[in-house]
Amino acid sequence: MENDITELLERYFLNEANAYFDVDEIVDLIYYFIEQNDTDTANNIIDMGYRLHPDDVDFKISMCFIMAEGGDFKSALNACNELNIGDDLDLDLLRSECYAALDRYGDITRLTGQLQAEDVSYFEDFVVNTAGILNDYSKYQNNASAYINMALGLYPDNFLLRIEMCLNHELRGDTKSAIDLCNELLKENVFSPDIWLILGRLHASCLDFYKAIDALDYGQVCLPKGETGMEYELKRLKAYCLMESGHYEAALEYYDELVGFKEFNKAEIFPNAANCYMNTRMYDEAYALYSDLRGMEAQIDDLPVYYAGYIYCCHYTNHIAEAVDVLKSAIVIYPYLGIDNVLQTKTKTDKQPDSFFKDFEGFEDFGDEVEDEDSVARSDYLADSYLSQIFNSN
Asked: What's the farthest any 2 CA atoms get from each other in the chain?
């Protein structure tokens, strides 16, 4: 594929105005430039596609999916309906996806009823995949439960539907029912890595990390070769469970391994790996990861803990000015959070020396002395007047 796209790019840039590409080539180019975040060039190629293939149905179908993947669900749905193509599973699932994104659950049930009345050959596949679409949206958790129960009434032995029900139990917080259903499904197919992953995640949510690790180990044993996405998820969750159960060195071995996966997400992995380094007193290694995440704060899930860990790490690596700067950023985003509470909780949990804990005592009370309600002014005052004084005195 890399050679193919290279050849397509050469043809495009050498003769942009008069180049000819068939539909598949145009679609490949569009996806390439979308992945490169070059929307201007992608749009130029879309225009070229409409110019070269104005009546080509395959190109129009591809454009429906491209619009949906770009988040323009309204345009995708309109284009899909304008095609007036029936008996097509992919297009009907695209309609379901668009309806879900556009808060039109009623249209999903209407479409489901219509396809059932038409007795389409792919109806079972349609309801299974639509159940998955609904589970992907937190706002539809209860709707998804009703939809899955309806589908199970028609196809009670469908394994994939029962997995979706298991996921729905998990999403709605019914952990016991989810675990019970997982165990029931494993009796039917003990070699399903999907079920072992779900079971591991459920045990982890109950803080039963050793049971979670056992489930994840079984999942890795059952994993077919080449399933890198599933392998990544199993190892990522195992690393987390090892970290939470205090096995920091073992967790770091997994985090190091995850870096080599194409699914690797720095904002997802580095905060936990840095935490492991901190708990093994490898402060320089932790600092390298924390500092590498600067500018990626919007992608970090537990941002307050990240800020607390970063500041804490700077305390031990003597990066005083950086600690002040990080605290400024933290208070701009969380002016009333009282990040001292996060730091105090962390120091108590990690059993760090009292000296560090005392450094941050009174932080929230000190913040009350600031009269200016502007969060930026507050952050400057607190960071410069307080934290820098503490670190410099140390």
From this structure: 78
Q: What is the pLDDT of residues 280-326, one digit of tens each?
A: 999 999 999 999 999 998 899 888 888 888 988 988 898 988 887 88
Collect all residues with Cβ–Cβ distance below 8 Å to 176 and sequence separation of at least 6.
none
Q: 310 near 329, Cβ under 8 Å?
A: no
Do residues 191 and 222 make contact, with C-beta atoms less than 8 angstroms apart? yes
Q: Is the C-alpha dihedral spanning 241, 245, 246, 250 positive or negative?
A: negative
Residue 42, Cβ density class (10 Å: 0-12 exposed, 13-18 middle, ≥19 buried): buried
Assess contact for 189 and 159: CB atoms under 8 A: yes
d(CA 192, CA 125): 19
Distances (CA, A) of 161 to 148, 155, 288: 7, 8, 45
Task: Return d(Cα 383, Cα 387) in angstroms, integer.
Answer: 5
Residue 327: name the closest of 317, 315, 316 by CA: 315
DSSP one-letter code for 302: S
